[in-house]
Specification:
Oligomer: single chain
CATH superfamily of the largest domain: P-loop containing nucleotide triphosphate hydrolases
Domain Histidine kinase/HSP90-like ATPase: 202-311
Largest sheet: 7 strands, mixed
Order of helices and strands: EHEHEHHEHEHEEHEHHEEHEE
Strand order of the largest sheet: 3-2-4-5-1-6-7
Structural class: alpha/beta
Distance between the termini: 48 Å
CATH architecture of the largest domain: 3-Layer(aba) Sandwich
Number of strands: 12
CATH class of the largest domain: Alpha Beta
InterPro entries: Anti-sigma-factor_SerPK (IPR050267), HATPase_C_sf (IPR036890), HATPase_dom (IPR003594), MEDS_domain (IPR025847), RsbA-like_anti_sig (IPR047718)
Keywords: Kinase, Serine/threonine-protein kinase, Transferase
Number of helices: 10
Shape: elongated
Domain MEDS: 14-156
Number of domains: 2
Pfam family, one: MEDS
Strand content: 15-25%
Length: 315
């Protein structure tokens, strides 16, 4: 068995490698991919275009048996990434999955880093029963310290020069999930625009958010997604929360923030809004749809009420 071999089992093997350049990258990636091809597995490589060129050159004709995806698009934001992996798994039933992943996300803020860290942790829980091996590649020369902490906390195994080994820094997904949501959201700035929401007819709300979004230079595609997401959040607050329901919006760091609060309190269970809902069940599309539409969705709920904050870049 090679250093990258996986013993026969039917559970997820989620590993990370902190490489130091092309040589160490290819020394780990090529045997990992070839082993999957020789075993008849469905082999996926989610990598930047430049890396695909190098892998194709190293693999030769065998590269044609791989499925390549562009990491920049695949890692647009966490919920879409989970949905993409779910779709790939569904497209290959009864086949072991093998994925080489080079996360292409570009987190700009601590909140974005926290959400991507949560994504890596959710993978261990959401796909625990999937027969798959995933190797996530991170360049140790470029990785920021807080991103590195997230990598170490979310991968049960690490791959080094001698092969895979247990990662003592790994943390239970429930602990990682709770830690992301533990800090309170930053306070609403005093110049935020506010609108009370007291009717299920949300035309006025859409006009309120749409007007501020256009002033902020939001593209038409982003605006459509934001209005759909805001309508869903506000509708849920009116139907299931408690008054007062208020929508606030402001600009922050080039992004537009839309914040909807209500006086209700609920206890999220499982992975609320991170996994594609069962298409045969009508309920459960709301928060998942909101997360699919907005790159960053933050949720806090407690005795004083519920706060859902949407953050979108102009483009």
């Amino acid at each position: 068995m090679s250093p990258h071999s996986d013993s026969p089992h039917t559970r997820l093997v989620h590993r990370a490698m902190l490489h130091s350049g092309d040589e160490s990258y290819l020394a780990a990636a090529i045997p990992f991919l070839v082993e999957g091809l020789e075993a008849g597995e469905a082999v996926l490589a989610v990598i930047p275009a430049a890396t695909e060129v190098r892998l194709r050159h190293a693999l030769g004709a065998r590269a044609d048996a791989l499925e390549f995806r562009d990491a920049a698009h695949w890692y647009s934001h966490p919920t879409r990434t989970i949905a993409a992996y779910s779709s790939f798994i569904d497209d290959h039933p009864a086949t072991r999955i093998r994925a080489l992943a080079e996360p292409g996300w570009k987190a700009r803020t601590p909140a974005e880093i926290a959400e991507w860290t949560r994504y890596e942790s959710i993978v261990n829980q959401a796909f625990a029963d999937v027969d798959a091996a995933v190797l996530c590649m991170y360049d140790r020369r470029l990785i920021a310290p807080d991103v590195l902490d997230g990598v170490l906390h979310t991968h049960p195994e690490l791959v080094g020069g001698a092969g895979p080994h247990v990662n003592d820094a790994y943390r239970d997904p429930h602990a990682v999930y709770a830690e992301v949501d533990r800090p309170p959201l930053p306070p609403v700035p005093p110049d935020a625009r506010a609108m009370p929401v007291d009717s299920i007819d949300l035309c006025a709300l859409r006009a309120f958010v749409g007007g501020h979004a256009e002033d902020h230079g939001i593209t038409s595609a982003r605006l459509h997604d934001l209005l759909v997401a805001t309508t869903e959040v506000a509708t849920n607050a009116i139907r299931h929360g408690l008054p007062p329901v208020t929508c606030r919006t402001w600009a922050d760091g080039g992004d537009l923030v839309v914040d909807v609060t209500d006086g209700g309190h609920w206890r999220p269970e499982g992975l609320p809004g991170f996994l594609p809902p069962d298409p045969l069940v009508r309920a459960g599309f709301g928060l998942w749809g909101v997360r699919m539409l907005c790159p960053l969705v933050q949720l806090r709920t407690g005795p004083t009420g519920t706060d859902i904050r949407l953050r979108v870049p102009p483009r």
